[in-house]
Amino acid sequence: MMVNMHEAKSTLSKLVELVQNGEEVVIAKAGNPVALLKPYSKSAIKRTPGVLKGKSFDMSRFDEADEEIRLLFDGDD
Fold this sequence. Notes:
The chain is an alpha+beta fold. It has helices spanning 5-10, 12-20, 67-74, and strands at 2-4, 25-29, 32-37. It has a domain at 2-37. The chain is elongated, with a radius of gyration of 25 Å.
């Protein structure tokens, strides 16, 4: 469903009810879509704290500059 900005301001409660029933609402300004009103959903990715606990990484070269990247920024000297 597409509604103009004025109608969206006037009927927000009704539009939210439509969205709760599964419909997506496009809000337009001067006939051009500018916003999408759709149901809120939590992130599909479930994060697990501590998943890397006990795993180690080699950080001995962390501060070393990569020559290829340096050349991209600085160019040939």
